[in-house]
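Re: the request from the purification team.
They wanted to know what the chain is likely to look like in 3D before they choose a buffer screen. I agreed to run a prediction and write the result into the notebook, where they can find it.
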Amino acid sequence: MKRIFPVIIVLIAISVLGIIYLQVEWIRGATKLKRDQYAQDIFLSLENVRDTINKRKDNLSGGISFPTQILSFGNFVSTPSILSNFQLRDIIRAELRKKKIKQSFEFCITNEARLPIMFSSGYKLEYLDDPNNRQIFLTTENTIMNTEVLNVFILQPESYFQNHLAILLLGSVLFTTIIITAFLLTLKTMLSQKKLSEIKSDFINNMTHEFKTPIATIQLATDALKNEKVINNKEQILYYSGIIKEENRRMNKQVEKILQSAQLERDEIKLQLKKLDVHTVIQKVAENVTLQMEDAHAQLTTTLNATNSVIYADEVHFSNIIFNLIDNAIKYSKENPIIHIETNNTGQSIQLKVSDNGIGMSKETTNHIFEKFFRAHTGNLHDVKGFGLGLTYVRKIVDAHGGKIHVDSELGQGTTFTLTFSNKSQS
């Protein structure tokens, strides 16, 4: 996995860059094709304008179309004599609109001397030599006299291409964004899976370690019970039986933690809410952890300032929250842990703080401590017992009670968990 992972990233990155390059080339080609089509559309539009003008001339002459001679005098009907500026503009506009060309334009009809004989108010003489000036003969090109040339100047031709290009770019950017987003999501998923795989491996290692010790102890105690000297000694039997019972209880406790975590993951735990005095629960938990505190040479102090300490909560799970935080403080303290629990009222809520003088955590660690199976790095994988489920459980139960939990920590200075619960009844 470690070897193939960089290769996958490189291949996906090359694919994305290749797609972007092909899209750029496609846009260039499409824009060039659009320019050619634009020129062709204008030419066809002007041809239609010429046909419309000539039809009107034919109708004016009684439907008889006279062949145009090289020298044309008597049969010639000039365009200005049958159309006004407004009429000609409407004809040109209508033909351009048929080709979806909606830009503003100016027009001019010149004679054989390139002198304007009919023009729109905005047409300028310099337009005649401009590349954007499109022209078409209204009379036969080989006519020497009475020649008419229609000139149409598109004022902002680039806006036509900009609109077209904007659509192409928008589509290209949209699909490129989708591709890049998919790439990033894939990358994120792969990193998450890689991290999850590492976490699960650590979990299995920790679980193996946690179960290996009690199993080995039970095995030794069982072997000892088979010894003839022990069989005839009631005190020894009780001693080794007690060891087996204690180690069995320890394993059951670990199994319960794992099962409890699975239940939380599936939202199967139902809270039995009732009125609880937070101070009473704290005192009970403090009594229950007395032996654990003595064994760890730890000190637990309380400052119960809250005047309203009643909340609606599940007694078992709420007690477990406090126990897990105390247990966590003991685990992550080097020696002689000092744990302090404080309560205060803030508005219509009660605030519970659990502080310790332990090793503390970095900011990066505090961002992950509530994640399942996550364990703070202490330099040795097994120097701190547990599966990394305690704080995940705490967070889930706090959320289930509609409370909030916040952690403040500094390396070498200790950690403070702040929990806030409403004093109001939960409906």
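For the purification team: The two ends are 50 Å apart (CA to CA).
Please add any questions underneath this entry.
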